[in-house]
Each structure stands twice: as structure tokens, then as C-alpha cells.
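Translate structure to sequence.
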């Protein structure tokens, strides 16, 4: 892979991770309910889930990406529809005091990591990024073991940079973000980002 390819992957992953979805929602709610440490452990699980998908794409989906273009086109449009659905969900509800209460940490470090991992593995937003978007950015036909190692390092670094500020701000502003007015503003902002992301993916050739 070229430096340009790595930069393109970094930028795409950064944008995808920054758009609030189930993972960010869970992290913010966990930080509001249980504080920074619990949410940080959950973020490690989210990162592990992303690496799992990245590995699957690199090892097993190169042939599929080349041979079944219509499948990936269908996944792309399913992703657009899903992001639009998430936007509607956030606009009409999103993070609520009940969500915060439900996301309070139960168990220790390992339990929180597992919670983040399972959340990511079942997250359609993450699936769409790695199955539909990554093959258009990363040349899966020429990727080497060294390239894969760099992609893993980039994935961890980008997710850490994007996710930790979310949970740090949420933990610091727990008293503020628990107010209905602040939660409504957060939900409406998230909905706007999701609509923009859906439009960007739909416009991508």
C-alpha cells in the first residue's frame, strides 16, 4: 500500500468513527452512567471488534470484493438506509436518562471490554464500513502482512483519538449531559451528522 492509501483509510475511518452510532451512544451513556474508566474499558472492546472486521476483510473478503460488486452495492445502499434510520432514531429519541441508567457498568474491566466487543460485532454501521467502504479504499489484491500491521495500528490510533474525547467529555460533563435539554441537543446533532454521512455514502461512486 502507498502512503496515500493509508491516509485515505485513516481519514475514512476517522469520519466513520466520529459519526455517532450505536458504539458512540453506548460509550457516552456508559461514561455518563459509570464514569471514565468503565467507558474506556468498553472502548478497548470496540477497537477489538473493528480489528476483527478488518482482519476478516483482509483475509477472506478480497475475492468477494472483486467478484460480487452487486453485493457490495446492495450493502452500500443498506448502509445509507441504516444511517437514515439511525438519524430518525436520534432525532426522535436517542440517548435518554433510561439509556444512561441501562448502560451503567456491571462487572470489571474484562466485562466492559467484552460488552464493547459484542456491541461492535453486532453493529451494522461497523459492518458497512468494513464490508462496503474499506474495499474501495484499500487495494485488497496487493496488501501485505506489513500493510495489515500498519492498518491495525492506524485503526487503534484513529479510534483512540476519536472515541476517548467523547467519553472524557461525557464523564466530565455528567451533571450537564444528564439534563433533558442537553441530551436533546446531543441527539439532534448526532442525527444531523448521520444524515450527512448517509448523503456522502450515497454520492460515492
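Result:
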Amino acid at each position: 500500500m502507498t502512503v496515500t492509501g493509508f491516509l485515505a483509510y485513516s481519514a475514512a475511518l476517522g469520519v466513520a468513527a466520529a459519526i455517532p452510532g450505536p458504539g458512540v451512544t453506548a460509550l457516552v451513556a456508559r461514561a455518563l452512567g459509570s464514569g471514565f474508566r468503565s467507558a474506556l474499558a468498553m472502548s478497548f472492546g470496540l477497537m477489538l471488534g473493528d480489528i476483527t472486521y478488518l482482519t476478516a476483510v483482509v483475509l477472506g473478503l478480497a475475492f468477494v470484493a472483486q467478484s460480487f460488486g452487486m453485493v457490495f452495492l446492495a450493502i452500500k445502499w443498506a448502509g445509507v438506509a441504516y444511517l437514515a434510520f439511525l438519524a430518525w432514531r436520534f432525532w426522535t429519541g436517542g440517548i435518554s436518562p433510561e439509556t444512561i441508567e441501562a448502560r451503567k457498568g456491571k462487572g470489571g474491566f474484562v466485562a466492559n471490554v467484552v460488552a464493547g466487543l459484542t456491541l461492535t460485532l453486532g453493529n451494522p454501521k461497523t459492518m458497512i464500513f468494513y464490508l462496503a467502504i474499506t474495499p474501495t479504499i484499500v487495494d485488497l489484491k496487493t496488501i501485505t502482512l506489513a500493510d495489515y500491521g500498519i492498518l491495525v495500528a492506524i485503526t487503534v490510533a484513529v479510534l483512540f483519538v476519536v472515541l476517548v474525547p467523547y467519553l472524557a467529555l461525557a464523564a466530565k460533563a455528567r451533571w450537564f449531559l444528564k439534563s433533558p435539554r442537553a441530551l436533546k441537543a446531543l441527539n439532534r446533532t448526532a442525527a444531523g451528522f448521520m444524515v450527512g454521512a448517509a448523503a456522502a455514502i450515497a454520492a460515492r461512486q
